[in-house]
Amino acid sequence: EEANRKRNDSLNKALAKAQLAKDHAAHKLEELRVGEEWSELLKNSVNRDKEKMGEFWEEVKKRLLKRFGSLGQAVRSAETAGDGIVSFLKFSDLLRAVNMPLNQIVLRAIFDKAALGERTMPVDVFKALLMDKTIRAMRFVMEGWNGKQARVKAHVRTFLRHLAESDEANRNQAIDRFQRKLTVPFIKGFWKTILKRLGKSRSQPVMMSRDAFAEMLENPEDLRLQAHEVIYMTRVYDRVSAQKMSLGIFHPSLGISVGHFIVGLTMVSPVSKPREKMALFFEAFDNDYDKCLLYHEIHEMCRCVCALRPVAEESSRSARDETFQAELSAQEGQRTYECLRWYLQRSGKVEGGVVNFPELWSALHVQPEVLHALLPGLVRIRWVAQVLEYEWEAEQAAEEVAKAKAAEEAAKASANTSSFKKTARQSVAGEPRPASRDTVASRETVTPPMVKYSSQSILNFRRTRASPMAAVLVAGKPSVNDEFKTSVTERFRLQLKGLADIRLAELTTGLWVADQVIEDLTGGDALGGERRPVRPGALCFVAAVVFCCCCCWCCCCCWLLLIVVDC
């Protein structure tokens, strides 16, 4: 018995080995057949397009992984003496090892195309060819993930913006938070970011247009700004440019100097120490990084500060004569410069007309009236909440586009719902009567249409309450709050009606079949028989469905009323 058992085991092992060899031979023949098909296909140069070559390299990659276990091992076996290149002979041997016998002409054409006509092919290029499909798949996944993250960030920014501008109290608090953010480190970092994104340095005269400034603020998270704070920063730029243009020292096509914008941003900042503000002014005009200014640079700094002082002081903007205001600012800057230069020359501490910041600060410190003429007091920039005329026009255009799109989607959803109900009735009326009510499989399944609905769509209302000044700026416009309530109410009603129609269609699909069963049960007179009573279970089911629909409609009406009252 022991001998028979051993003999049977050895026989089974031999049979298994023979079967394995047979399967391996059959698999090899199959691979050779596929390789010959690729050879015949690629003989025609027209078939060597990007799509076909991608499939070919994917097939080669699968065979290399099966043969060598990893692409790294396969590439190392194809290298010529480990020098990082793949020759034509090694490439041919590698394909032959994975049962891919190609015609020599086809093989040479494929190698020349991959090596860009060179005699050898770098290993990195060979790896890229093998991993092309995987890389494209990973890129597609990453692009989808990045797009989803961008949409989430956009929703968050929109929500925070509407929350910050929901009423006057929240709007004032948001402006105060933005102004408190304008510290010396923040302004310096913002200045460096502007120069970096514009590709300039402080040693160059950098002019910044409004379009370039708006493009630079596309990613507010990188600048540590919220979405509504980006709007405030843009309005600060508009105020500085408007002030410079009113003085005749600015042209809209050229833009304003980055240094002048930093000066204007510093003047509206809540920095309480005059020395820190003057240090920022000094650094804004120090273009050569030597921590010194010449007399003409000090003159330019004084004129710029005096010209931009009305940006922070609302009282100085009462002068409507632009020529007089320009002359007044120029005279104030000239007088301040003369006072500083007189002290610096009389003190004897300045040599060669080069002034450093400690020397300039000592001249300002002993002349407090000059320092007060340069630096305004601490003010609140509540004027950044005012909507400018071009912003209102752009917002109105965006609202019209959104309204037209919403109406089109609502009409499309209504048409889909009507066609669905018609199709459902026809399908139920035309189908054969089931033998019993339990035969669910015999009923035709009706798939309700997909309606685009999202809880985020409620947040897509227009930014009307965020800008109460807009109703004052544009006379004759309808009330902003009335437009807001009407828009939200109409949109919610359309969404609610669409969802109710779909739910009603889903519920009544079963009722139509139940009505047919009731007609079968009560149709005794038509068949010449005795009329049978209606089943009470069907009537109870109908009553329960009607009661549930009424309850749902009442709840939705209450919810709509609460939303309107809250708004």
Q: Helical region count?
A: 21
Q: The biggest beta sheet, please?
A: 2 strands, antiparallel
Q: Give the CA-CA distance, first to last residue.
A: 94 Å
How much β-strand is present in the residues? under 5%
- Mean pLDDT across all residues, rounded? 74
- Number of structural domains: 3
Q: Strand order, main sheet: write it out.
A: 1-2
Instruction: Please bin the fraction of helical residues.
Output: 55-70%
Query: Would you tell me the structural class of the helices and strands?
Result: mainly alpha
Name the quaternary structure.
Answer: single chain
Uncertain regions spanning at least 5 consecutive residues? 423-478, 510-536
Q: What is the number of strand segments?
A: 6
The dominant shape is: flat
Cα Rg? 40 Å
N-to-C series of helices and strands: HHHEHHEHHHHEHHEHHEHHEHHHHHH
Organism: Polarella glacialis (Dinoflagellate)
Protein name: EF-hand domain-containing protein
Keywords: Membrane, Transmembrane, Transmembrane helix
Based on the model shown, name its key terms.
567 residues, mainly alpha, Recoverin, domain 1, 3 domains, two-stranded antiparallel sheet, two-stranded antiparallel ribbon, 68% helix, 2% strand, flat, membrane, transmembrane, transmembrane helix
